[in-house]
Design a protein that fits this description.
The protein is mostly beta strands. It is built from two helices and 24 strands.
Length: 255
């Protein structure tokens, strides 16, 4: 749209410069026309010439045919020095103010009154901070709208799934983990859902109320639904026995 207005303006200016020069210059400009020794809108002498005030040349051009307007022409174009031809066709010193912005808006944000209006999924003074509506857990970092970058050992949309493996402990005395099940390495979820009271190295206490399932149940890796289990443990040997009546959920470890 602006290109069309610019081209129409250039055609109008070209037509103007083809008219007798007396129509182009007014009393405020010391212009010399085709009747003199200099081209239109050129001041000075044959030995030292320059564009008359209010005119300039096109880039890489040598004709003074581009008018200069001090005020903004908005949706119009500068048709003669300090005069705009507005979108309605009316001649005026200006065609409305141009909105300016002193801040840079990122990620598709738009500037409104020197502040950024951000697209959905971003926030901050410059819309440079992504938003994760449900947050990122376990040290994860929000790197995009509802997109978390998880630290090693965690996965899921909010880094909520812990797939780290480590030893399982059956006792905790004076904040010390004891009763490690020899030869058993499992996830914290599996340990704490069965006979474990602490897990990992360094040792982490099992929650009083395991999450997302209560003790005796673990989440199905496919559906996320809590599934039941059974376990047995004696002093002489440990039997960690999980049996879930869902395909892909059968786990049995005897020691």
């Amino acid at each position: 749209m602006w290109l069309g207005r610019f081209l129409r303006g250039m055609l109008w200016i070209t037509w103007q410069t083809s008219q007798p020069h007396s129509e182009l210059c007014d009393d405020s400009y010391m212009c010399q026309g085709s009747e003199g020794s200099l081209p239109p809108n050129v001041c000075g002498s044959r030995f030292h010439s320059y564009c008359c005030p209010g005119w300039k040349t096109l880039p890489a051009g040598n004709q003074c045919i581009v008018p200069i307007c001090r005020n903004s022409c908005g949706d119009g174009f500068c048709s003669r020095p300090n005069m705009c031809t507005c979108g309605s066709g009316q001649l005026s010193p200006s065609c409305g103010a141009v909105q300016s912005c002193n801040v840079r808006c990122m990620n598709g944000g738009s500037c409104q009154e020197d502040s950024c209006s951000c697209q959905k999924g971003y926030t901050g003074n410059h819309c440079g901070q992504p938003v994760c509506e449900n947050g990122c857990q376990n040290g994860g970092r929000c790197i995009g709208p509802n997109r978390c970058a998880c630290v090693y050992g965690f996965t899921g949309p909010q880094c909520e799934r812990d797939y780290r493996t480590g030893p399982c402990f059956t006792q905790v005395n004076n904040q010390m983990c004891q009763g490690q099940l020899s030869g058993i390495v499992c996830t914290k979820t599996l340990c704490c859902a069965t006979i474990g009271r602490a897990w990992g190295h360094p040792c982490e206490m099992c929650p009083a109320q395991p999450h997302p399932c209560r003790r005796g149940f673990i989440p199905n890796i496919r559906s996320g639904a809590c599934q039941g289990k059974t376990h047995r443990h004696t002093h002489t040997h440990a039997v960690l026995h999980l049996h879930i009546n869902t395909p892909g959920w059968s786990y049995k470890l005897n020691k």
